Amino acid sequence: MNIQRACQAALDIGQHVIRSERLGVPQSARDVFDLLSKAHIIQAELADALKRMVGFRNIAVHDYQILHLPIVVTIIDKHLEDFLRFSKSMLQRGRPHTHQPV
Question: What residues act catalytically?
Answer without folding.
Answer: 57, 62
